[in-house]
Amino acid sequence: MNHTISALVENKFGVLARVAGMFSGRGFNIETLNVGPLVGGKYSRITVTVKEGRNSVEQCVKQLEKFVNVIEVSDFSQGGSFVARELVLVKVKAASKNRAEIVQVADLFRAKVIDVDPKSLVIECTGNANKIKSFLGMIEPFGIIDMARTGSVALERGAASED
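and the corresponding structure tokens:
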């Protein structure tokens, strides 16, 4: 089972390294890791996806909560309702004979062609991990030249709980 863990942290030097090190130090392979500053730049949100292993993800969450620079930690996979999205940029071989077919596949997935070259297209696709996997499966036969993928970003659904 995949666990999506979100940590609101102070945007300070070394915080990301300590968070990532904590997971690897406990034997977890990080599937995806995404970090970005929030409005104002004082805080960042780190989103980590790990697979359940022989170690408890719950223990990692408790350990993260003890870090000085960590404000809040959520394991969205523990019954919480959340939305998660990924972004993938794919450069695909696109000769004139199959270009229309590639664009049609992109349209099916609500992906956008963001760069056009005589021999290739760059396509942007966003969605959950299953949608990205399906998109890549459909586009792969055309010939993927290069690819960049962000990994998950996630937020809890519904109204924020303001105390």
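(Above: one complete record from the training split.) Helices lie at 15-25, 57-66, 99-108, 129-139.
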